[in-house]
Amino acid sequence: MRHPILIPLSVAAALALSACDNSGDAQVERALQDLNVVDETNLNDVMLTIGDPDEAVNYFRGASANDPGRIDLMRGLAKSLIRAGRASDAVAAWQAVVAHPEVSNDDRVELADAYIRVNDWDAAAATLNTIPPTYETFKRYRLEAMVADSKEQWEKADSFYETAVGLTTTPAGVYNNWGYSKLTRGDYAAAERLFLDALRHNSSMFTAKNNLVLARGAQRNYDLPVVEMSQIERAQLLHTMALTAIKQNDVITGKSLLREAIDTHPQHFAEATRSLRALEDNVAN
Where does the signal sequence lie (predicted)? Predict the structure, then answer.
């Protein structure tokens, strides 16, 4: 009489055990999926920062092919192409990202940046115009300033540079770009001040040092600025100053600066030596 009761109970127990096993398997599967996502995220970050750029391109291209439509992988490919110096390919990659339903304003800024890298200033301007003015980021305004420069819209450029400076804690690069903008306009005194601002924020930026020498030389001030520099940098800056002087027909000053550059350099300064020899040959002829 008890068997009919025991059999259903045994079946029920077996089903319950089976359900527990299935539930456990599902939990393990979910845990493994979560672990894979974490591992993949870490790998993506590595590829975007310290990985070899070409390897990163191959990685994200393969990952995107295996999982098409994932915007994070599409972004990774576009960023890796920029890192690899393949700006033309990056434009196409960022265009695909911008066409994605989950596109962000930051993606549009990156597309504008890619356009600038291939000198397509009109496309960069058009892309930036699709971003609402309420979206205010450092990179957006830095690019806006560069586009305004390309169109010789100086007041706009100055306004954008000033805004960009206020949106970053490392404005040296912006000050350098702004100074170069002033240099191309012939406003040498303002350019000099901006290059000094750049060096105040980053004393090791050689580009700003070289531009500062150009700005001073354009004003016929042939004394090197009092800024931090190595012996090799001093020689290179003297060479830049010398060429600036020669360009302005201050030949005697230029020759003197070239000799000083050659004497200052701790090794053989081939470039300065060639410049001096060419200058002396020209004078002799």
Answer: 1-19
